[in-house]
Amino acid sequence: xxxxxxxxxxxxxxxxxxxxxxxxxxxxxxxxxxxxxxxxxxxxxxxxxxxxxxxxxxxxxxxxxxxxxxxxxxxxxxxxxxxxxxxxxxxxxxxxxxxxxxxxxxxxxxxxxxxxxxxxxxxxxxxxxxxxxxxxxxxxxxxxxxxxxxxxxxxxxxxxxxxxxxxxxxxxxxxxxxxxxxxxxxxxxxxxxxxxxxxxxxxxxxxxxxxxxxxxxxxxxxxxxxxxxxxxxxxxxxxxxxxxxxxxxxxxxxxxxxxxxxxxxxxxxxxxxxxxxxxxxxxxxxxxxxxxxxxxxxxxxxxxxxxxxxxxxxxxxxxxxxxxxxxxxxxxxxxxxxxxxxxxxxxxxxxxxxxxxxxxxxxxxxxxxxxxxxxxxxxxxxxxxxxxxxxxxxxxxxxxxxxxxxxxxxxxxxxxxxxxxxxxxxxxxxxxxxxxxxxxxxxxxxxxxxxxxxxxxxxxxxxxxxxxxxxxxxxxxxxxxxxxxxxxxxxxxxxxxxxxxxxxxxxxxxxxxxxxxxxxxxxxxxxxxxxxxxxxxxxxxxxxxxxxxxxxxxxxxxxxxxxxxxxxxxxxxxxxxxxxxxxxxxxxxxxxxxxxxxxxxxxxxxxxxxxxxxxxxxxxxxxxxxxxxxxxxxxxxxxxxxxxxxxxxxxxxxxxxxxxxxxxxxxxxxxxxxxxxxxx
Length: 680
Hints:
- One of its GO terms (biological process) is phosphorelay signal transduction system.
- It holds the Pfam family BAT.
- Keywords: Chromophore, Flavoprotein, FMN, Kinase, Phosphoprotein, Transcription, Transcription regulation, Transferase.
- By secondary structure, the chain is an alpha+beta fold.
- The protein folds into five domains: about 10-125, Rossmann fold (3-Layer(aba) Sandwich); about 140-265, PAS domain (Beta-Lactamase), CATH 3.30.450.20; about 290-455, GAF domain (Beta-Lactamase); about 460-610; about 625-680.
- The chain contains 22 helices and 24 strands.
- Strands 20-21-19-18-22-23-17-24 form an eight-stranded antiparallel sheet, sandwiched between helices. A six-stranded antiparallel sheet has the order 13-12-11-16-15-14.
- Strand 11 and strand 12 (about 335-345) form a beta hairpin.
- Helix 10 (about 265-300) runs parallel beside helix 13 (about 435-455) and helix 17 (about 550-555) runs antiparallel to helix 18.
- The chain is elongated.
- The model is unreliable at about 130-145 and about 390-400 (pLDDT under 50).
């Protein structure tokens, strides 16, 4: 495929190529010597390809938009060799398998790190930059003397970067009469060893017979030919030779010689073979795990408890066609033990594994390493028939029964490890790096699902953990603001927004309003300060921040803020969380985030029944964000007091709406709140 004189022609196709992570402007900036044009129409793109107006096509694929895979398949019908880079918005097994089947040149999901850079690399590999040698006007060879012409031609042949041979077509067996230096360097044969014999001396037992027959027939028919064949060097090593031969005729049309051009293409052939192997491996892998990942994902959506997750996951992973056995265990950090809760191979009582007593090289040591590092660990010689699948304290090669390979997959969510999933296969070579990467993602999905079902306990039962931590450090925003006030900064509520900001509601002395505003204006972390209500003595202030670490940490583990006490020295944060494990993770993350984080109190509650948190959660699920904000601001600002401490106009202004709209939100929220109260 040739490039245009102005540069490599890139056709960028998709619904909106200019707004994609791999945009037309991005390609122009990062890729050298390219001309990038875009198209949003499928038919137009096909026509431009058929008209040979592109050296490479870069196409988006979205399930609900532009079908880049259909364009790839259409291109392959007429232009099987044209480089096509597919950029899916979401990468799934089905999409990847279809791209491989259609022989995509490269497959770069939009979510890839440095997707633009990967696409530019794919373009550079598929469409090398055209030769930019200096073009100088030289004296035509016909203007030189005959001797000069002869010497120039001989020098050109001798110094050519490709192997050149000339054979005598009039002599028996057509022996070589000339070989250049590149031929000697490529083959290892000296000129005196090559001249006088037929060039078939480069062939050997690994040379394809059909290819040599094609070459022989071309010589017999006095025709040109181009083939790729395996040849042998003088030292016996092999190389791939891209050989082109062409007949040379005299003035009467008689073939007097054959000239051959040889180029070592071993690296290219090995790269092509490697790509073919990788595609075949990917195809087999996708067929192996695609259905499994989809089924487990559906299980995680349907599961209502940790027990459901454990049972259904093991039933699917360990009893399917992909693997031969699986078990799952819960991790207890204080005792550093794993308790096996489900095993696809046995119905034995649960077994507890002590990770602190693991002999080096034992299977339990593999489990301990996976838990400690939070990474998938592979092991071989796994005993598939022992009561706990080979993880019994012995070395992994001690099993007397059926053996294979296995992986330990940690079930993690953020900084918390909830357990492990251990999977076995009879194939000792199973679980390559790509498969382990997929299984690691599956482990994170299971860990996230476990966190979700455990976090539900915070709002559905009184079985919660109440924790108070004290946070200190020079960068605590609320403590900084409190230090500017004469009175207290009394917490009234907090709400996180979708854009990552947090709105705090505080009660302060009226005399401190100016000081608080002045302090907030000096701190770039504060984006807004709004007075919701004001009396002669005090006021309610809304402080909007661009993000607060402890709120992010709590929301990540399902924690619910109960109270915040603030002074100029630090803050004391009281919260509820569903499990001891999540509570411990929250405390540890606070310790890694703040200069000092001290556990003040820890209380477990096991009273059954619906909680106030459950009622609040039910009401919040019925309210829109606007309705909840309107109701919360009315409550904390004294709107419901008599006489009112704030008016609707002030609250409407704080929300950026007109009063009539604010009252609509407030009345709708009041109606839903009253209905929930009487219907509960």
